[in-house]
Design brief:
Elements (H helix, E strand, L loop, with lengths): L1 H52 L6 H13 L9 E4 L7 E11 L10 E18 L7 E2 L7 E2 L6 E2 L7 E4 L31 H10 L8 E4 L9 H10 L3 E11 L6 E16 L6 E7 L1 E2 L2 E3 L10 E6 L2
Parallel strand pairs: 4-9, 12-14
Antiparallel strand pairs: 1-2, 2-3, 3-13, 3-14, 5-6, 7-11, 8-10, 9-10, 10-11
Length: 315
Amino acid sequence: MSARNERGQAMVLTVVFLVVLLGMAAMVLDVGSWYRADRDTQSTADAAALAGAQALPEDPATAKTLAQQYAAKNGGLGSGTITISSKVVPNDTISVSVKRSAPGFFSKAVGVNSVSVGSTGVARSEGVTSVKYVAPITVHYKHPLLNCTGPSSNPTCKPDFTRQTTLNLEDLHQKGGGNGSGAFGLLNLNYGDPTGNIGAGTLAGWLATGYPDYLPLGNYFSAPSANFNNSQFRASLDSVIGKEVLFPVYRLLTGPGSNAKYDIIGWVGFVITSYNTNGSSGTLTGHFTSYNAQGIPATSGGTPYFGVKTIQLVG
């Protein structure tokens, strides 16, 4: 009799352990499902923040719309929110919060029908100091479509990206000589090089693919104007028609010819639609554009901003 009772107890204990084991397995499956749902909210929040940051700091309203649209294509924000804030310059940061309900399956057996999951993504659109892939053609900061005001040492600029314009590259100095005489708007991008002597092939390569290293703001020497009419340089111009290129923006031009130095204070995107290299004159026609660069972010608002920025997640 005693042995039979013990066999019955063992069966009961086995059933209890199986129930507990199955319950634990069920909870593991539910927890795994909730974890995946939480990771999905993080991916959506991060990607929506990066999408919205494309429009910052210029247009916070559009930034919110872009973030909302991206989130809607990936499950929506749920009860989350989108906010714009300022870190280095006004309206440079966007925060996207995604909050959703994740259903339970096996956990319903213990009264857990769903749990709340959520994540926040923060992205910042920052002006840059040093950048990669610069083309060796300059733009003066007083170009009408750059809309710069204030002192030349630290102008405030609001570039117009909507209108076509023509850059007259030979018109860099007062007629009759003086500073910039003989300079043609071409740069030797080898920072610190004491001369402007650089070959046409090198300039052409920089135009086609951009200078491969980070370039800081500062003084750069003018390159010989004859390079603009070189066949290699014209071939590179052909290769970038309709594409975004990154130009240095200068404030001052001092010294004559190949000894002329440009004081580079920023960077601007430009889309070339046509060009003219006849004779001693040169023109580029196209429009300025906002440009997402591979660059080192500015840590203060003291650098003139011409629409060139780097966008990254910061939280």
